[in-house]
Backbone:
């Protein structure tokens, strides 16, 4: 029994030697994130999303954010759609919308900077609900929330596959 103890401890320690840090396919260690294209009438959304992605990758630290000339991959994106739809309403003589759902859809390409060929392409949706008060303040908060969700989804797609 005593002779088995060191072997068991060694096997247990080997089984626990994994990391929660994301693994990136191939040799990608740095990424460039140019300003997204905006195919919507939503002013400033592409810039806000690009800034949020850069901050997210910097906080995560798995990949170094660099200029395109020094990057192992380029994250190219475009905001394809934005939409506000009624989410909840109060019934009565006339239906009164209480909340709206802001949604956006982006197409993302992770591109090899040398060949200009996509490593992968994916469409990402994101949304958030906001209370309608007649002011744009709640809608702007919903846009920020949806942008944060989108950033998390993209970051997880690229560095979260461990």
Residues:
């Amino acid at each position: 029994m005593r002779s088995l103890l060191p072997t068991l401890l060694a096997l247990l320690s080997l089984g626990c030697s994994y990391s929660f840090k994301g693994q990136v396919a191939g040799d990608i260690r740095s990424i460039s994130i140019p300003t997204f294209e905006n195919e919507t009438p939503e002013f400033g959304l592409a810039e806000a999303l690009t800034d949020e992605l850069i901050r997210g990758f910097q906080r995560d630290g798995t990949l170094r954010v660099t200029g395109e000339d020094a990057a192992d991959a380029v994250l190219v994106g475009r905001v394809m759609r934005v939409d506000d739809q009624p989410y909840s309403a109060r019934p009565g003589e006339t239906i009164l919308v209480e909340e709206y759902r802001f949604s956006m859809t982006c197409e993302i390409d992770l591109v090899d900077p040398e060949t200009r060929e996509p490593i992968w392409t994916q469409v990402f949706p994101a949304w958030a609900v906001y209370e309608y008060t007649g002011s744009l303040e709640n809608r702007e908060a919903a846009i920020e929330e949806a942008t944060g969700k989108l950033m998390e989804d993209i970051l997880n797609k690229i560095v979260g596959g461990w």
